[in-house]
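User: I'm preparing a small set of examples for a lab meeting where we compare how different chains pack in three dimensions. I only have the primary sequence for this one, and I'd like the structure in C-alpha coordinate form so I can line it up with the others. Please keep the answer compact; I'll paste it straight into my notes.
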Amino acid sequence: MASSSRSSSSSSEGILARVSNTVSQSPVLYRGRQVASDAAYVTKRLLKSTGNAAWFAGTTFLILVVPLIIQMDREQQMNELELQQASLLGAPPAAPSK
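Assistant: Understood. Below is the C-alpha coordinate output for the 98-residue chain.
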Protein backbone atom coordinates (compact mmCIF):
# COMPACT_ATOMS: atom_id res chain seq x y z
CA MET A 1 0.00 0.00 0.00
CA ALA A 2 2.82 2.39 0.81
CA SER A 3 4.39 1.72 -2.57
CA SER A 4 1.09 2.44 -4.37
CA SER A 5 0.77 5.83 -2.63
CA ARG A 6 4.34 6.61 -3.64
CA SER A 7 3.74 5.72 -7.24
CA SER A 8 0.55 7.76 -7.39
CA SER A 9 2.28 10.81 -5.89
CA SER A 10 5.25 10.45 -8.23
CA SER A 11 2.96 10.00 -11.22
CA SER A 12 0.98 13.09 -10.18
CA GLU A 13 4.22 15.03 -9.86
CA GLY A 14 5.15 13.80 -13.31
CA ILE A 15 1.86 15.00 -14.72
CA LEU A 16 2.17 18.38 -13.00
CA ALA A 17 5.74 18.73 -14.20
CA ARG A 18 4.75 17.83 -17.77
CA VAL A 19 1.80 20.22 -17.75
CA SER A 20 3.92 22.97 -16.24
CA ASN A 21 6.69 22.33 -18.76
CA THR A 22 4.22 22.31 -21.65
CA VAL A 23 2.59 25.55 -20.53
CA SER A 24 5.92 27.30 -19.95
CA GLN A 25 7.08 26.37 -23.46
CA SER A 26 3.77 27.34 -25.05
CA PRO A 27 4.03 29.67 -28.07
CA VAL A 28 1.05 31.61 -26.72
CA LEU A 29 2.86 32.28 -23.44
CA TYR A 30 6.04 33.21 -25.31
CA ARG A 31 4.11 35.66 -27.51
CA GLY A 32 2.35 37.09 -24.45
CA ARG A 33 5.67 37.73 -22.74
CA GLN A 34 7.03 39.34 -25.89
CA VAL A 35 3.98 41.61 -26.21
CA ALA A 36 4.24 42.59 -22.52
CA SER A 37 7.92 43.39 -22.97
CA ASP A 38 7.19 45.49 -26.06
CA ALA A 39 4.39 47.32 -24.25
CA ALA A 40 6.70 48.10 -21.32
CA TYR A 41 9.34 49.45 -23.72
CA VAL A 42 6.83 51.66 -25.56
CA THR A 43 5.42 52.94 -22.26
CA LYS A 44 8.90 53.77 -20.99
CA ARG A 45 9.74 55.68 -24.17
CA LEU A 46 6.39 57.50 -24.10
CA LEU A 47 6.91 58.60 -20.50
CA LYS A 48 10.41 59.79 -21.31
CA SER A 49 9.16 61.79 -24.31
CA THR A 50 6.31 63.24 -22.25
CA GLY A 51 8.77 64.28 -19.56
CA ASN A 52 10.98 65.97 -22.13
CA ALA A 53 8.00 67.82 -23.60
CA ALA A 54 6.89 68.94 -20.13
CA TRP A 55 10.40 70.20 -19.36
CA PHE A 56 10.50 72.13 -22.64
CA ALA A 57 7.06 73.67 -22.08
CA GLY A 58 7.83 74.58 -18.46
CA THR A 59 11.14 76.27 -19.17
CA THR A 60 9.70 78.12 -22.17
CA PHE A 61 6.86 79.38 -19.98
CA LEU A 62 9.29 80.56 -17.31
CA ILE A 63 11.58 82.32 -19.76
CA LEU A 64 8.99 83.95 -22.04
CA VAL A 65 5.61 84.22 -20.31
CA VAL A 66 6.41 85.01 -16.67
CA PRO A 67 8.40 88.19 -17.47
CA LEU A 68 5.56 89.29 -19.76
CA ILE A 69 3.02 88.82 -16.96
CA ILE A 70 5.23 90.76 -14.54
CA GLN A 71 5.63 93.63 -17.02
CA MET A 72 1.87 93.77 -17.69
CA ASP A 73 1.23 93.91 -13.93
CA ARG A 74 3.71 96.77 -13.53
CA GLU A 75 2.05 98.65 -16.39
CA GLN A 76 -1.37 98.23 -14.78
CA GLN A 77 -0.04 99.50 -11.43
CA MET A 78 1.48 102.56 -13.14
CA ASN A 79 -1.84 103.33 -14.86
CA GLU A 80 -3.70 103.05 -11.57
CA LEU A 81 -1.13 105.31 -9.87
CA GLU A 82 -1.48 107.93 -12.61
CA LEU A 83 -5.27 107.88 -12.27
CA GLN A 84 -5.00 108.23 -8.50
CA GLN A 85 -2.58 111.16 -8.79
CA ALA A 86 -4.80 112.83 -11.40
CA SER A 87 -7.83 112.52 -9.13
CA LEU A 88 -5.87 113.99 -6.20
CA LEU A 89 -4.82 116.98 -8.30
CA GLY A 90 -8.44 117.61 -9.29
CA ALA A 91 -8.22 116.68 -12.95
CA PRO A 92 -11.37 115.12 -14.40
CA PRO A 93 -11.11 111.32 -14.45
CA ALA A 94 -10.12 110.03 -17.85
CA ALA A 95 -11.67 106.93 -19.30
CA PRO A 96 -9.28 104.00 -18.88
CA SER A 97 -7.67 103.09 -22.19
CA LYS A 98 -7.83 99.50 -23.24
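A couple of notes for your slides: The chain has two helices and no strands. Residues 1-9 have pLDDT under 50 and may be disordered.

User: Perfect, thanks.
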